[in-house]
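Practice record 12: protein with phosphoenolpyruvate.
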Amino acid sequence: MIFDDWRSWTHNKNNALLIAGPCSAESPEQLMQVGTHLSQLGIGVMRAGAWKPRTRPNSFEGKGVEALKWLKAVKQQVPIKVATEVATPQHAEAALKYGIDILWIGARTTVNPFLVQEIANAVEGVDLPILVKNPINPDLALWQGALERIYNTGNKKIAAIHRGFSSYQKSKFRNTPSWQIAIELKSNFPSLPLICDPSHIAGNRDMIFEVSQKALDLGYDGLMIETHPNPEQALSDADQQVTPEGLSKIISQLRFAKKHSNDALFISQLEQLREKIDLIDQELIEVLSLRKQLIEKIGDYKKENNVTVFQLERWNEILNSRTAWGNGKNLTSEFIQEIYKAIHDESIRIQTEIMGQETEKKK
Ligand code: PEP
Ligand code: MN
């Protein structure tokens, strides 16, 4: 799938696709105030939820169609595009009627292929960017499926929004980022713009900067940051919203690295370092292959002596000694243990295969 460059569909004056605005549209004044401020910061798109999917009943569920009218009024007065969440085909039809520029599909909708398809049908043939948030569960195929349903309507103005994944386990994040899922999506579809939503990942405004910086360092194309004139009084997601001033500070402190550099010195130095890495990786593979030959000998030996493949004491000793050796060489315990678990799993697999061959021969 080949997607359009996001620069073709926003007013963005920054070198990343920045979307900001309140979690929920609460009043015409709130939207006009934020929209004016955001546009002064060079932000191309203002977000605001008209319909709010809430986990528990009796929470604020959005102003609906009324909010669409307020969003329309902002874009008539301020040079900024407006975006809202659609969770049903009826939402999408209403958003089109009121001239909303960009729609996004929320995490709770991406999980439902029927709804995503109905929304896709409702926007078929309409020239409107559609952003697709990750599903609440860490399922890359489901996320890709939703993107494909939109793409199949002929729309190439699509972006993915990474907002983290629900987890029962307590963590410092409201929604666990599991960065590798978004990175895999980006490697499957390199032209797909990938936006990070640090607000819903973090769940509190103190972590917005660090999550945003991490996303930019990973090469994300943009950020969607919840911004409210008075976050403490917000009707939804009060803990994670920042003021426009707070947003301005975050943006000024973020490091927007270039994805590539044409600087000849940089390119030649990078090439030299990569050549060294290539040599070291060849050595690593060589050493792993020598290790494998020893494992096969051990497998044969255990088989002859009728001894089990897995030896708990030996495994504990390997793990402890290698962790200590690694620490002595400035490598973290987590890293060494990850690697040794993979090496040990493979060793068990190889030895179990040898044991199996033995039994077959005996038959
Ligand atoms: C939101 O953007 O306010 C929202 C409800 O997000 P999500 O779908 O990521 O929970
Ligand atoms: Mn929100």
